[in-house]
Amino acid sequence: MALHAAGRGQRVLVCEVDATGTLATAFECGPLAFTPIPVDERLWAMAMNTEDSLREYLRVYTRVPLVARIGPLARALDFVASAAPGVREILVVGKFCYEVRERHYDLVVVDAPATGHVVGHLAAPWAINDLVQVGLVRDQTKWMIDILGDPARTGVVVVTTPEEMPVNETVELVARLGSEVPVTASAVVVNRVLPELFTRDEEVAFERLRQPDAAGRLRELAGQGTDRVLDAAALAVALRRSRAEDLSRLDERLPSGLPVLLVPELFARADGRRVTTQVATALGEELG
Question: What is the C-alpha R_g of the chain?
Fold first, then answer.
């Protein structure tokens, strides 16, 4: 999910919601916390924490002395969150909307929860707004709704892979964004797209080399490892064709005009800044 304020795009905050540590790995920095840390020029990163978000909310809006009271308040939050929908989620969404409203950053990029949870997080301000009719809480959800519901300021970028189940989940999520919560999808990023390594003529040549007579002659000339090379080529062709079919199905089922950006399979052994840079470069090329 991406939210942006009116600015020149010079200060970017990247946020991790589920605290898996993948964001710290991607930028090769230390463990992330609620307080953003610089990870590159004009780029900051943080990890979401609902208790710290509650602490900040109370400090900004209620002026409650926190040293002695955060424990009971956190327990009260757990009690209320189990009884009322959207309470815990709104602490997450509210933090990011607050950063946009205060224009601390020009762009806020949120590594949101998995498909089954992201709609619930986005819908939290509307759920609270329906429950609470007057007062400070309703006023605060109003400006969150203004930010989230504005397609010029907020959009969901759905990341998927060219496989049957991820494609189905992506199509379902894009439809839910339009019907269950008024937050629009801005683009779909398809990760791990396999390159087309061989032409049709080369595929035909590989098939001929797999015939018993040709395979035997090839082993005599190049050694026993040729069978594994031909098997790998056949697997690459089969995977490419299968994923190409899933890509076509995705394109057919998505709304017309929704951008689809392709990120190639990088065949990298490890994550880190090098891989992150390669992904960013691929996305930049797709965006032109």
Answer: 24
